[in-house]
Each structure stands twice: as C-alpha cells, then as structure tokens.
Amino acid sequence: TRAVTTYRLAEMKARGEKISMLTAYDYTMAGIMDAAGIDVILVGDSAANVIAGYKTTVPMTLNDMIYHGKAVARAVERALVVVDLPFGSYQGNSKEALNSAIRIMKETEADAVKLEGGAEIIDSVQRILCAGIPVMGHLGLTPQSINKYGTYAVRAKEAAEAEKLYSDALLLAETGCFGIVLEKIPAALAGRVAAAVKIPIIGIGAGGQVDGQVLVSYDMLGINNGFSPRFLRRYLNLHEQITAAVEQYREDVKSGDFPNGSEQY
Ligand code: KIV
Ligand code: NA
C-alpha cells in the first residue's frame, strides 16, 4: 500500500489536519501531483468532460475508468488513489457493483473506489465493503444523476433535501465508508455533516467547515476556461499559456525559425 491510507486520512481528521485532493487522468500529471504532496488523487469520471469531450459523465464505461486508473496508479507512490465507479456499473445490483469494484482493484493499482448516492445504493456499498475494498461516498450534486435533476445548480438548499443528505451521510459512515465527497451544497450543511461523523468529509463547492477539499485539475489549472462556478479558484491560466505556446510554435515553423542550427543532427 501507499503511504497515505484510509487510516491515515482518519487520523488527519482527528488531528484537524486538512486533506488535499485533486483529480488526475494520466500518468504524467498524476506523477507531478503525487510528488507535490497531494494526499488523495481521484481518477474522476469527470474525465468524461475534460478528456473525452462528453457533455455529461453518463457515457463513461468501466473500461474507460480502468484505462485512466491504470495510467494514474502507475505514477503514484505516496497518495491514496481513488477511482470513480461510472454510471451503470453499480446502481440497482449489488453483485454487479461488487464485480465492477473488483475489476477496478484487480486491473488498476487503485486503493479505493467512489460511488455516487446514499440509501439508494447502500446494498452496493455494503457488498463492496464486505470484499475488503475501501469505499468513498459522494453526495449533494451527483453528476451521474443529471438526467433526474436536469441542472448542475446548488443542491440541498431546501430542508427536505438537506435532511435526506444528512441522513445519507450518516448511513454511509455507519456502513463503513472511509470518507465522503460533498459537492455543491450550502457550507453550513456540509459543516454539520463533518461535525457529525468521524470519517473525513471532502468538499467541492461545500465551504470551509469540512475536512478537506477537492477540485477538478483541469479547472484549477485553468486548462478548461469555459467553466467558472463560484467555488472554483484558478491557480494558473494554462488555457492562455498553451494557446500562446502553440501559436508561437506555429509561427516558428512557418517562418523557418524552428528548428535552428543547434536543434538538429
Ligand atoms: O469526477 C470528479 O471529478 C469528481 C469530483 C468532482 C469529486 O467526482
Ligand atoms: Na466523479
């Protein structure tokens, strides 16, 4: 196992040390993030949007996730590697869910899987846990259910939905999940959940009263410049820098400036 384990993450929460998590989809980027000291690397099904060019995460397959999972896991020495189970690979059939999780664990060198949902998928969560596979939950905005909700707006603003999310979080924690991602919900609700459970709560658009933060790497690096939710902090503007580099290269090729005398054999 790698240095960051699910046990280490629980210790970090107990000590009040915040947990840093980012998504990665390929070997090179995952290696950079691991060497930079990120605690958890998520092979997110957001690969659908930023890598594959799908409008939603719904089309991602288990084979797609295994391809990305393998590439990331080959690079990571220290961080905990979590792979998303994609839409259709775990809902409504706990035996199929277990088979999906087993494929991820056998075919990639991941440490854990992540599933979206609460009470609806608890049989699947339980069965995967029974096989000794660590499970991370994901509540609030759950992109695999986009066709049910029809919007990526903030979730759980109304009392009924907030109470359902709170009880789902307690259920996932009791069942044995090692952590839960809360996506795009009011900060106060996320804080209430984090205070109620011993397992780490990792937020994205869920405020600062939680145990750690996750962002989609393509968003925080500014590669993706068409997506600007309030919760996104951009640390680079790679879209601009890559554009400038590509334009310069094109000009250098056209003008004959590249390659120069020392750039050839
Ligand atoms: O797929 C993903 O990138 C995620 C994070 C937003 C938590 O699930
Ligand atoms: Na995801």
From TrEMBL:
Pathway: Cofactor biosynthesis; (R)-pantothenate biosynthesis; (R)-pantoate from 3-methyl-2-oxobutanoate: step 1/2. It is found in: Cytoplasm. Binds 1 Mg(2+) ion per subunit. It comes from the Bacteria. One of its GO terms (molecular function) is methyltransferase activity. It catalyses: (6R)-5,10-methylene-5,6,7,8-tetrahydrofolate + 3-methyl-2-oxobutanoate + H2O = 2-dehydropantoate + (6S)-5,6,7,8-tetrahydrofolate. Its main location: cytoplasm. Gene3D superfamilies: Phosphoenolpyruvate-binding domains (3.20.20.60). GO terms for biological process: methylation; pantothenate biosynthetic process. SUPFAM superfamilies: Phosphoenolpyruvate/pyruvate domain (SSF51621). The active site is at E183 (proton acceptor). Its cofactor is Mg(2+). 3-methyl-2-oxobutanoate binds at D45, S46, D84, K114. Its EC number is 2.1.2.11. Keywords: Cytoplasm, Magnesium, Metal-binding, Methyltransferase, Pantothenate biosynthesis, Transferase. GO terms for cellular component: cytoplasm. The keyword Cell membrane does not apply. Mg(2+) binds at D45, D84, E116. Catalyzes the reversible reaction in which hydroxymethyl group from 5,10-methylenetetrahydrofolate is transferred onto alpha-ketoisovalerate to form ketopantoate. Homodecamer; pentamer of dimers. PANTHER family: 3-METHYL-2-OXOBUTANOATE HYDROXYMETHYLTRANSFERASE. Belongs to the PanB family. This is 3-methyl-2-oxobutanoate hydroxymethyltransferase. It comes from Rikenella microfusus.
